[in-house]
Amino acid sequence: MSRPDAAAAAALDAAVVRPVFLCFLDILGDPLRACTAGRSLRLSGTGDLDLDDLTFDGLDPTVVEIGPVRAKDGGSDAVSARLSGIVALDAPLLNLVGDPATWQGRTARLWRMIRDADGVQHGAIQHYFTGWMTALAITGDPANGQTITLTIEAYLAAYSQASNRSYMDQALFDPDDLSSRAALAIANGNSGSPLTGNTSVNFDSDAMNAAAGRAAF
After folding, report:
1. What dihedral do alpha carbons 7, 10, 12, 17 form, nearest 10°?
2. For 57-100, how does the pLDDT look when each residue is reduced to its tens digit (9 = 90+)?
3. Cα torsion for 51, 126, 107, 87, to the nearest 10°?
4. CA–CA separation, 14 vs 12, rounded Å?
5. Which residue of 8, 59, 125, 147 could cross-link 84, Cys pair, CB 3.0 to 4.6 Å?
6. CA-CA-CA-CA torsion for 139, 145, 147, 148, nearest 10 degrees?
């Protein structure tokens, strides 16, 4: 993730900041370019091939919400983008959402432009996130307005898969650690060394057996 340049960073200290967000969604057959400027923007001279000489359709910034980017080990957290206040969804949009092959796993890019209270741009446009579209959902109803939520995963996070490992896999990392075998033995009512045959646990009275059964739960 890049950082704002000096001019943009200085403008962020102002009492009022009106950033404009731009996005590119590589939707199969119909790439989407949009911005929150409230009107369409055509950019040039940025040096970014995904920005220059291309038109970004303007959206009302009050109905667009883009989540923050949080960096961590193994890649950034997923970023969500929401478009709310939709009264009715047309057939092409419904078909798009219903066909993951047109968007899932395809590139999404986000930029930010810093503007002051008068709408004057300060500094260069900052590219701050690139990832893959991984989930697209529609919530709400036409009567109260519907919301489209897009989830974008960073490349590292999208490549990383859950290990599905548990504490019982401890011996894979430390062959001399027999705690997982001991835990299984105890759970099954046995005692003794996990290296040798386990012995059953016996109690001298029905009351003690009952108490042990309750303790197990």
Report:
1. -70
2. 999 888 889 888 876 665 567 888 988 877 777 777 777 778 88
3. -80
4. 5
5. 147
6. 100
